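User:
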Amino acid sequence: MILGPGLASAGEFPERPMRLIVHFPAGSSTDVIARVFAEKISQKLGQQIIIDNKPGADGAIAATELKRSPADGYTFMLATNSAMSGVPATRKSPPYDVTTDFTPIIDVGRYNFFVFIDKEVPAKKLSEFIAYAKANPGKLAYGAGNITGRLAFASIVAASGLDMTHIPYRGEPPAITDLITGRIQAMVATSGTGIPQVKDGKIVALATILEKRSAIAPDVPTMAEAGFADFKIEPWAGLFGPPNMPKQVVAVLNGAFKEAMADPAVRQRMAEQDFALTPSTPEELGALVKRQLDIHRKIVADAGIEMMQ
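Assistant: Predicted structure:
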């Protein structure tokens, strides 16, 4: 394929190694997902994809670097709703405009998050937990290790009229430790962090926040089944490039990712991560970003969350 203006070279894309930015540390779920795709797509395109981990500031550091990168197709980012919806919704002066500062390439998939509680709390259903929290105003705390966990539980608190204290953590592991020991009574966290603890009998899962039940915890109801039909947060991941990437390059990357998503080995690895693949057009990813940004902003307003600088 001969590509138009905007590329460093007029030859076929790609002609040299590419860089995939990940705004989480090595070993994280997003990092694992990125490396699976990088290996498969490197084989397809004949050029290496180098993973560049740039964690911190809920993805704002990595996204800002992407925004400033050349739009030649050789730098792109596997970004989550934390960076693309959470940061703009929770900051007074976000460092980027997600609707104009990036090029949507493809919607990659959905992470599974669950509502977890301390096993000592007398509740086996979300409705029972809410009743218990209402009977104990100001006495319970919920933790969060990321923006998704914070906003997801804050929406439950706001919708139910609960009086609970929020305790922030630097990542999910320390929060889940405090949930196990009873320092906090609830949190929303990824399946990879919480479900192993559920299976060991250390905590309880009350609901999954996705629309369908999880294959790794099929007995746990969805938020809709638990009485929250209007729960709209989707923990998603998508591929983005710098602004004004050539459409031909976007098409190459979109096609390569779609082909990788259809590979049985890739699908198996994603299932192990409890990550549901959602191949899309670039336009569909752009629409998702705008829709989720509106939802995140509404949650921040409804829950009275103080905006950061």
